[in-house]
Amino acid sequence: MEIKFSRIEVDSKKYLAFMTAIGLVAALAPASAICLFLEGHRVTNMTNQVPWGMPIVMAIYLIGASAGSLVLSAMSSVFGRVEFKPFARMAATLAAILIVAALASIILDWGRPDRLMIPFFHFQPRSVFSLNAILYSSYMLLCLVYLWAMFNGKKHLERLLGLTAVFLAVLVHSGTGAIFGFVYVRELYGSPLLPPSFIAAALSSGTALMIIILYYTFRLSGRYLDPRLLTSLGKLMGVFIIVVLYFLFVENVTRAYAPANYEESSFLLLHGGKYTALFWIGLVGLGMIVPMIVGLNQRLSRNIPLLLGASVLQLAGVLIELFIIVIPAQVFPVELFHDQEVSSVFLDGQFADYSVSLIEWTYSAGMMGAVVFLFALVIRLWPMVPTEARHLEPEEELAAEKVEEAAV
């Protein structure tokens, strides 16, 4: 299957207006970061009890979307899904942009961005943070080399790098999940299921993001996109959501089964107020079950506006899932001494209160705006988007696979 790629050609005035608008949104990120740097985290609702707030949630959200996008990029070269070949460049580009935005989100939240290189000079193999510093930098380099191989038609190298990309994407987001899963002092964190759960969420959110990106990129650039390709991605998203729900079910049932975890589990699942509402309504109901039904139902998934809405709900659902993982575990008091009541002026044994502040919202919105801005700039400057993308019938896909194998 011969695929022709080219730069997008759109009305200059409309493109300039779009880039100006999205650039203003992207500018919210550095403006918020400068404010945090100058004023300190007191301008947010983060405290000593809740030091990881919305910026960290956004960072791991972007890392997951990046990992999911990179796996989708490798679907054609590694898993033989030739129909996804037209999207490989776009998905790999998006993966690279998302990981850069994620790391920028982490670095700017540190308060000391000047200490960026310290993790590389003081490597500690027993530290998940130290290991992730190596993984993230290797991941960014792999994205760039993988794109270079695709641009230069290095079929052998592309397949090898695609396989490596899948392995490293899984490893990178597993490492992100391990940051929380290895914290056993907090019962709502410590879980061996968090790394694979993060991977499942990355795949579902990455697929949902690609559905939205593909639709609007092709539509705004005036190129033909076969709706059946979006339907195929919708079905894939539905399958990934089933895996996410399975991990959510097993993790929470396992935690609730242990008598020592009754209080923590009931807080999250039954009487946690806004966190319980977010879990059942935002995450399980609207964020998972609704998009799963739309994606897996052939009739519903053919309705493209409905599929786009389901994809947006899925992206929101994964963001809520990560918020539910990161925040309630910090809000719930740590048990310092088993079967003992602890109280002091430092609020030991008391529930913390956290809500996302305005500056954290602008910070997060700015990061998402930066991703869209960079992606729109890249596809304008380089041939990333195919001139058309058509669905392949089984016989055509088999023939295309043989052509691909012969080329390799």
Question: Could you please describe the fold and organization of this structure?
Answer:
The chain has 408 residues and is mainly α. The chain has helices spanning 12-26, 28-39, 54-73, 75-79, 88-110, 118-121, 128-151, 155-181, 194-220, 227-257, 262-269, 274-296, 298-301, 304-331, 358-381, 394-407; strands spanning 5-6, 224-225, 385-386, 388-389. The protein is globular, with a radius of gyration of 22 Å.
Quick tags:
globular, two-stranded parallel ribbon, Formate dehydrogenase/DMSO reductase fold, two-stranded antiparallel ribbon, 16 helices, 408 residues, mainly alpha
Q: Topology, please?
A:
Elements: E1 5-6, H1 12-26, H2 28-39, H3 54-73, H4 75-79, H5 88-110, H6 118-121, H7 128-151, H8 155-181, H9 194-220, E2 224-225, H10 227-257, H11 262-269, H12 274-296, H13 298-301, H14 304-331, H15 358-381, E3 385-386, E4 388-389, H16 394-407
Parallel strand pairs: 2-4
Antiparallel strand pairs: 1-3
Helix pairs in contact: 1-15, 2-15, 3-5, 3-8, 3-9, 3-14, 5-7, 5-15, 7-8, 8-9, 9-10, 9-14, 10-11, 10-12, 10-14, 12-14
In DSSP terms (H or I, runs of 4 or more residues), the helix count works out at: 16
Structural class call reads: mainly alpha
From the N-terminal CA to the C-terminal CA, the straight-line distance is 13 Å
**Strand neighbour order, sheet with most strands:** 1-3
CATH architecture of the domain at 25-41 and 49-247 and 356-397: Up-down Bundle
CATH-defined fold name of the domain at 25-41 and 49-247 and 356-397: Formate dehydrogenase/DMSO reductase fold
Order of helices and strands: EHHHHHHHHHEHHHHHHEEH
Helix percent reads: over 70%
Low-confidence stretches: none
Q: What is the CATH top level name of the domain at 25-41 and 49-247 and 356-397? A: Mainly Alpha
How many DSSP E strands?
4
How much beta, percentage-wise? under 5%
Oligomer classification: single chain
How does the overall form come out from the CA principal axes?
Answer: globular
Instruction: Tell me the Rg in angstroms.
Output: 22 Å
- Quote the average pLDDT: 88
How does the major sheet shape up? 2 strands, antiparallel
